[in-house]
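Exercise 7.
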Amino acid sequence: MTSGNRVVASGRGTLAASPKASPSDRWYFVRALDAQGNPIAYSSPVWVTALPRSGADDREWLAGDLHVHTCFSHDAYCGPEDDNTGPDEFYTLGLHVGQRFLEASARGLDYLAITDHNDVRSSADPDFGAYGVTGIPAYENSLHGHAQMLGASRLYDNGDSSAAAANSTAAALRADGGVFQINHPAGNIEAPFDSCADTANLDWGYAYDVRPDTLEVWNLTSSIRYAETYWECWLQRGARIGATGGSDSHWLSTAAVQGVGNPTTWVFARDRSREGVLEAIRSGRTTVSRIPPAQGGGPLLLEADRDGDGAFESTAGDTVPPGTAMRVRATGVPQTGLVKVRANGATLVDEAPLGTDGELRFRAPASAGWVRADLLLAPSASQGAPGCDPNGQFISTCAYDYLVAGISSPIYLGR
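Solution. The predicted structure, written as tokens, is:
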């Protein structure tokens, strides 16, 4: 049965049917009848929910995690046969490649990047890409700070790890179709990063000398606010760099709060292949949500009506004329909250509430540049946040970070 009391298939005994869900179908369930045609049993439904689309092309929003570790990392222990972590670190009990893909599938993810420290063995594991989740080969590269080598199935030469050598490493990865990402640039920060000149305080040691393709703005181990500040410094320099998030999940003990998909990076991709995912990331067609699809998460959409016809056909990564009508849409949980819009280094919309339809409309600035958006939870949500100073002044910016529900990559303003 489907919505409208429509019978899709019927039969006796074992029943196999392959209906194709349409936008008008809201659920499917099974109903059993006795010999007289009286209902005697029902199954719970499978719900049909169409993911939001932007524009008129054939892209779709795919959910994934771009920063996950397995037993191949040196800081995850997986038993006596673990070749790089000893039993003295039993508290770092980790997960195998197949277990990570199973976790991703259970959380509703479409793709998963395994990013062990300077190790690419995961991509050769027989369970890589299992459970219907597209596998993205990658590793976390230890430079002066950490870089994500997305799409890498081999280790690259870092040379002397100077800025010139790091740029050569990034160029070699790009030549092979990969994406070079800066990871948690504000990780372990011990002083505020409120100015683009404060780069000595960053975990990323190259300041602006090594240009990334994308930047991990959201990582539960580091400050979102300071990472956003650093990201905007790149945008103000004219770089077109999208935002991503990664759980940086290592251990079984932290999976409940820092498991696969916490946060989730959504990519607006032409297909579900690794090439399709990487192309979307490279193009800045990304948005990040705090929770994965299985927990109600959905992409925070920043959209623009480029031609003024009332249809918002442009989205993150696109370029539209200055002054274009724009909107922010919350498609997952929560569909309420406060929207902050930043444009060209300044606040354009200062924590305005979403409408009852889960959207907020505004106009882009009249000058060239960029526009991006955040969705924040109600301020009361920060009360009692673990590890946060009651006055919200803790140096890690924990109180602010606890409020963030979604981050969208920019739409660019130009001709």
